[in-house]
Write a structure and sequence with these properties.
This protein has 561 residues and is of the alpha/beta class. The chain has 2 domains: 233 residues, no CATH class; 208 residues, Orthogonal Bundle (hpI Integrase, Chain A), CATH 1.10.443. It contains 20 helices and 13 strands. The chain has a 7-stranded mixed beta sheet, with helices on both faces. The radius of gyration is 28 Å and the shape is elongated. 38% of the residues are buried.
Length: 561
């Protein structure tokens, strides 16, 4: 049946989006073998909105944005659209400047632009496409606003790795990380942010159909690369669980600089969130094409970022008439357009090297070198609290610690000097800390305690460790905004560092003084680390130290302001 005005561009886009919703609903129901799938009209069971290219790659096609026409140059960006974009970006930058907020635009490329060699025969790639016209226009008329289009970076990276799944319109999280790095390079110097290195992330593939793969009668699957932080710090603090536009996610990171970033973006933004959440003290993502000034007013960010896919550029956002994020979220929640809570930030709770170094940096700033070194021994040698109390200088070697270990089943009938010892490799940063601590005080004998009681100057008396925890450790942890985990939890930092360095389960268990079965909970981490590639522990610690040195002072200034 013909729809009145179906050739009108707005009507065509609206109908196309309705088709998309119906198709996705039908595909989802069929994958679950749900009998409700029979209620979805047959024309929406396979929408034909793809073309099969070379090398098993599928491309979006015949969509409401006419992505193939954009790519071939048949559909160009008109003067009116270019003028509207210029005015929009200039207005945004001017309005945000009133809040001392920088503005940046990120344009994820289409898969068609990244893999033109995989397009079906006969589909051409225009040298000048709508995105190129827009980039030139904004560079000329709004030069103060950074615009990032990481096509060159993705073309370079695809020589080594897949950056788009073969059955998906969106980039994978490796490509998102490449774009994240380009974005960080383009940020104004006035915006404080933590910049992740590739060694901070581990990437591993999971095979899935993708949003194009499900369009076939028999869904096609392909590997999707996902990126997870090796030592995550960010945590989820709010999620309205709305599906699509109106979706709002908020994260916080205690070890990132005390800056706020608000992101207005489309579905490509999800791949960026794991990295952006670690880079800013507070990250707010609103899934919307417009810039919501009410959200800016509430959050007062240092950076506002728009993420809009290349294929959506012909639709110029309308900030003045677009429904606000909160209003849209309320309406969609009332209509039942919801999703499960995001679990991306649900990870095992332990302090990352960045958090450990932040604690140490504050202790050192207060002149508490013994406490800072004690924290190093717990986090970078995996010692139990009782073991750091017993540790003597004769146990500290050039390359390893010899840690006295109480024999199993003995309360204390054997003198400690006769206890067996276990070998723990001495990581370079910890070795440096111990040397600095030893040289800072009076010359210590080999038989002297490495960490005498800070209350008596001698052996630790009963109850003094708990007193140290309650008076000298936990108050600082809580003041820094970190999760109030006891000092004994620092042992897990050593476990994580060792896994990512490539320690075998048996080797790690021996260093920890544990039975290998005790590491069963880490088996999947060991497997993933082996697949993703190993990273030495010492450089990771040293990078965390550099971050702490840059972060502690700004946060102290922000706290006193």
């Amino acid at each position: 049946m013909l729809i009145h005005g179906e050739h009108d561009p707005i009507v065509k886009r609206t109908v196309g989006r309705i088709d998309d919703v119906l198709w996705r609903a039908g595909a989802w129901l069929r994958l679950r073998n749900d009998p409700m799938a029979t209620l979805v009209p047959a024309e929406f069971r396979r929408d034909g909105r793809y073309v099969a290219g070379r090398n098993g790659r599928m491309f979006l096609a015949h969509d409401s944005n006419r992505v193939l026409d954009q790519h071939s140059g048949r559909l160009r960006m008109g003067r009116g659209q270019l003028a509207a974009w210029t005015a929009l970006v200039a207005r945004r930058a001017m309005a945000l400047a009133q809040y001392d907020c920088a503005y940046t635009l990120l344009i994820p490329p289409n898969a068609h632009s990244v893999y033109p060699e995989d397009l079906p025969a006969g589909l051409t790639t225009a040298a000048e496409r709508p995105v190129h016209a827009l980039l030139a226009q904004l560079a000329e008329h709004v030069p103060g606003v950074p615009v990032v289009h990481p096509l060159a970076e993705l073309l370079d990276r695809k020589r080594r790795d897949e950056v788009f799944p073969r059955t998906e319109t969106h980039w994978n999280e490796l490509a998102a990380f490449v774009a994240y790095r380009a974005l960080m390079e383009a940020l104004p110097a006035a915006v404080p942010a933590r910049r992740l290195e590739e060694d901070d992330v581990w990437f591993f593939p999971l095979t899935a159909p993708g949003d194009l793969g499900i369009k076939r009668r028999l869904p096609s699957k392909s590997p999707h690369l996902f990126g997870y932080l090796r030592h995550p710090d960010a945590r989820l603090v709010a999620d309205n669980m709305v599906e699509g536009t109106g979706n709002v996610i908020v994260t916080e990171s205690a070890v990132a600089p005390p800056s706020t970033c608000v992101v207005f973006g489309d579905s490509y933004t999800f791949g960026l969130l794991p990295f952006l959440s670690e880079s800013f003290g507070r990250l707010v993502f609103a899934q919307t094409p417009s810039v919501d000034m009410q959200l800016i007013e509430r959050e007062r960010p240092q950076l506002a970022l728009t993420v809009i896919s290349e294929r959506f550029l012909l639709d110029v956002p309308d900030d003045e008439n677009e429904i606000g994020v909160e209003e849209r979220a309320v309406a969609k929640a009332a209509a039942g357009s919801v999703r499960p809570r995001m679990d991306r930030w649900d990870h095992e709770r332990h302090f990352s090297p960045a958090a450990v170094e932040w604690i140490r940096a504050r202790m050192l700033a207060e002149g508490r070198i013994e406490d800072a070194t004690l924290v190093s021994a717990l986090a970078y040698a995996g010692l139990h609290p009782i073991e750091v109390q017993w540790l003597r200088w004769r146990h500290v070697g050039e390359h390893a610690l010899r840690v006295p270990t109480q024999p199993p089943g003995q309360d204390a009938p054997v003198a400690r000097r006769h206890w067996p010892t276990r070998r723990v490799r001495l990581l370079e940063p910890l070795g440096r800390d111990l040397a600095d601590w030893r040289s800072a005080g009076e010359p210590a004998r080999d038989g002297g305690l490495v960490f005498p009681s800070p209350f008596s100057g001698g052996p630790w008396a009963e109850g003094e460790w708990q007193r140290w925890t309650d008076e000298r450790y936990l108050p600082l942890v809580e003041e820094l905004g970190l999760e109030p985990l006891g000092a004994g939890n620092l042992r897990r930092t050593f476990v994580a560092l060792s896994i990512h360095e490539g320690a075998a389960a048996a080797e790690l268990a021996a260093e920890l003084g544990e039975h290998p079965d005790a590491l069963a909970e880490h088996a999947h981490h060991i497997e993933h680390a082996a697949r993703a590639g190993h990273v030495p522990a010492a450089p990771a610690i040293n990078r965390a130290r550099e971050l702490a040195a840059r972060t502690v002072a700004p946060r102290a200034e922000a706290a006193s302001a």
